[in-house]
Design a protein that fits this description.
Layout lengths: L43 H12 L2 H9 L7 H10 L4 H12 L8 H13 L3 H13 L6 H13 L3 H9 L10 H13 L3 H11 L7 H13 L3 H13 L6 H13 L3 H13 L6 H13 L3 H13 L6 H14 L2 H13 L6 H13 L3 H13 L6 H13 L3 H11 L8 H10 L6 H16 L6 H13 L3 H13 L10
Length: 498
C-alpha cells in the first residue's frame, strides 16, 4: 500500500528525521491491544522472526519463512504473534503461512491470538472462520475463545453481539457455565454497559448459581459508573442470599467511593470495615493512598501509607506505585523520585507501571532528558518500555516542539521490539498540524497511509483533517490518492473538501 507513495510528487520534509518517511519500500505495517496484554518476549529467535516478517512483503513472506531453519513450536509462534501484536495484518499473514507447514500444527493459544487480532481489526468473518477451523482440528473453541470475541464486540460498540456470542456458545460445542457467565458480565461492566449486564444478571443468576465473583463484578460495574448506592444494593443482596462479602467486595466499594469523590463516605466505610473486624489488607491501604492522593489530599495519603507500615502491613509495589503517582500528580516529582529510590533501596523491583508513572511525571515537569535516562534505566534492569511509555515521551516532545526527538523515538519503535499503536500515530499526526506547513502535512499523509497499512482504523475526523489539510497546503494530488486508496478499502469519508 505504501508503494503508492512513489507516485506522489510532493514537497519533501526538511528535517533529517523525516527522511524515514520517504519510506523505505517495502514498509508494511497495524492496531492496538485490549484482550491480550502484551509483554514483549525476550527470546532472540522470536525477535529475529518478527523482524523478518515486518521487512517482507506479502509475496516474499512465504519464501522467507520457508527458508528459516527454526524449529517451530507453539511457544515460539505465540511469542512471534505477541511481538507482531501492533501489526495485525502481518501477524495474520504469519499465522496463515504456518497453517500450510508440513509438520507444525497451530496450538489452541495461537488460534486464539489470531482470532483476537482479527476481531480487533473488525474482520469478524475471518475471526469466525478461525473458530470453525479450530473446531475442525478439534482444538476448540474454548470458553476463552468466546471471551475474546465477546470483549472485541463489546469494545467495538457491539454489546448486543457480545451477549449473542455468549448465548450461542453451546452451538459451537462449548457449554456455558458460571465462569463464562461471569466473563460476559465483566466484559459488559468494563465497557460501561452495566444496565445490560444487570438485566442479564437478573435473568440468569438462578440458572448459574451466582457466587461472590458474580456479585463483585456487578458491584464494580456500578462503581465504574459512579453509582455507589447501586453497588451497596448489590452487597445487600449478596448477604440476603447467604453469600458472604469478601475483601474484594469491600475494596471494590471503597474504590467506588473514591471514584465518585465521596471522600468522607470512603473514610466512614473504611472505619466500618475495621469495626466489623474485616481483615484489612494491602489492597485496602493502596486504594486509600491512591484515592486521597488523586483527590489532592497528599498529606492524608502519606499518613495512610505511614499508618499501614505502623500496623505491620508490608507495602506492595502497587502501593509504592500509588504513592509515587500521587506525588507526581499532586505534589512534586522530586519527592516522587525520593520515594522511588527508597523503594529500590528496600529491595523492591520497580515494574513497568512504576517506570511509566515516574517517566510521565518527569515529562510533565519538563525534565525530558531525565525521562529518557529513566527509559534507559528500565531497560538496563530488564523492564522494556511499553508502547504507553513511548507514547507519553513522544507526546511531550511534540508538545514542546521537539519533533525530531519525537520522530527519533518513533523510528526506534519500528525495529519490532515495541511497535507503535493507534495512539502513537494520532499523536504524531496531530503534531504535524501545529506549524501548518506543506511539508508537515505531507508527513501527516504518509503517517495516515502507514497506519492504515498496519490495520488501524482511524476516526473519520482524522481522515478528514489530514485530507483537508493537504488540500489547503497545495497537496491536492496526494489527498486524492489517499481518498482513492481508502475508497478501495471500503472506508466512507464525509465532509472532505476536494
Amino acid at each position: 500500500m505504501l508503494r503508492q507513495l512513489s507516485l506522489i510528487k510532493q514537497a519533501q520534509p526538511t528535517w533529517n528525521t523525516y527522511l524515514l518517511y520517504q519510506l523505505k519500500p517495502p514498509f508494511y505495517l497495524p492496531r492496538n491491544t485490549l484482550t491480550t496484554v502484551i509483554q514483549s518476549p525476550s527470546s532472540s529467535e522470536d525477535a529475529t522472526i518478527a523482524k523478518l516478517v515486518l521487512e517482507s512483503d506479502p509475496t516474499s513472506l512465504s519464501e522467507t519463512l520457508t527458508n528459516l531453519n527454526f524449529q517451530w513450536t507453539p511457544h515460539l509462534v505465540n511469542n512471534v504473534l505477541k511481538r507482531l501484536w501492533n501489526h495485525g495484518p502481518k501477524a495474520l499473514q504469519f499465522f496463515k503461512h504456518l497453517e500450510r507447514h508440513p509438520t507444525y500444527i497451530h496450538s489452541t493459544s495461537a488460534f486464539e491470538h489470531a482470532i483476537d487480532i482479527s476481531a480487533r481489526l473488525r474482520d469478524y468473518n475471518t475471526a469466525w472462520a478461525l473458530v470453525d477451523r479450530m473446531r475442525t482440528l478439534r482444538l476448540g473453541p474454548t470458553p476463552r475463545t468466546f471471551a475474546i470475541l465477546s470483549e472485541r464486540y463489546a469494545t467495538g460498540g457491539k454489546a448486543h453481539r457480545a451477549v449473542k456470542v455468549f448465548l450461542s456458545m453451546h452451538e459451537h460445542g462449548c457449554n456455558q457455565d458460571l465462569n463464562s457467565f461471569n466473563t460476559i458480565l465483566d466484559v459488559l461492566c468494563k465497557t460501561k454497559r452495566v444496565e445490560m449486564a444487570h438485566n442479564l444478571f437478573k435473568t440468569f443468576k438462578g440458572r448459574f448459581k451466582c457466587d461472590s465473583v458474580s456479585y463483585n463484578i456487578m458491584a464494580n460495574g456500578w462503581c465504574l459508573m459512579k453509582r455507589t448506592p447501586m453497588a451497596l444494593q448489590v452487597m445487600k443482596e449478596m448477604v440476603e442470599r447467604g453469600i458472604t462479602p469478601t475483601m474484594v467486595t469491600y475494596n471494590t466499594l471503597l474504590k467506588g467511593y473514591f471514584r465518585s469523590h465521596q471522600l468522607n463516605e470512603a473514610w466512614d466505610f473504611f472505619l466500618e470495615m475495621k469495626k466489623r473486624k474485616c481483615e484489612i489488607d494491602v489492597v485496602t491501604y493502596t486504594t486509600m493512598v491512591h484515592g486521597f492522593g488523586v483527590a489532592g489530599e497528599v498529606k492524608r495519603s502519606k499518613r495512610v501509607f505511614d499508618a499501614m507500615v505502623k500496623e505491620g502491613l508490608i507495602p506492595s509495589v502497587a502501593t509504592y506505585n500509588a504513592l509515587i503517582q500521587v506525588l507526581c500528580k499532586k505534589d512534586n516529582v522530586q519527592n516522587a523520585l525520593l520515594v522511588f529510590e527508597e523503594m529500590v533501596g528496600k529491595g523492591y523491583v520497580p515494574n513497568l507501571t512504576t517506570y511509566n508513572v515516574v517517566i510521565r511525571g518527569l515529562c510533565h515537569s519538563g525534565e525530558m532528558e531525565k525521562a529518557l535516562e529513566f527509559m534507559e534505566r528500565m531497560e538496563e534492569h530488564g523492564c522494556r518500555p511499553s508502547v504507553q511509555t513511548y507514547n507519553v515521551v513522544i507526546r511531550y516532545f511534540c508538545d514542546d516542539g521537539e519533533l525530531e526527538k519525537g520522530f527519533g523515538l518513533f523510528e526506534k519503535m519500528g525495529n519490532g521490539t515495541c511497535l507503535p499503536n493507534l495512539d502513537t500515530y494520532n499523536i504524531l499526526i496531530s503534531a504535524m498540524f501545529v506549524r501548518k506547513k506543506s511539508e508537515d502535512l505531507v508527513v501527516a499523509g504518509k503517517l495516515l497511509i502507514e497506519m492504515v497499512g498496519r490495520g488501524f482504523l482511524p476516526r473519520k475526523f482524522t481522515f478528514n483533517r489530514v485530507l483537508n489539510g493537504l488540500v489547503l497546503t497545495g497537496n491536492r494530488d496526494f489527498a486524492n490518492e489517499i481518498l482513492r486508496m481508502q475508497s478501495r478499502c471500503g472506508r466512507i469519508l464525509r465532509h472532505v473538501k476536494l
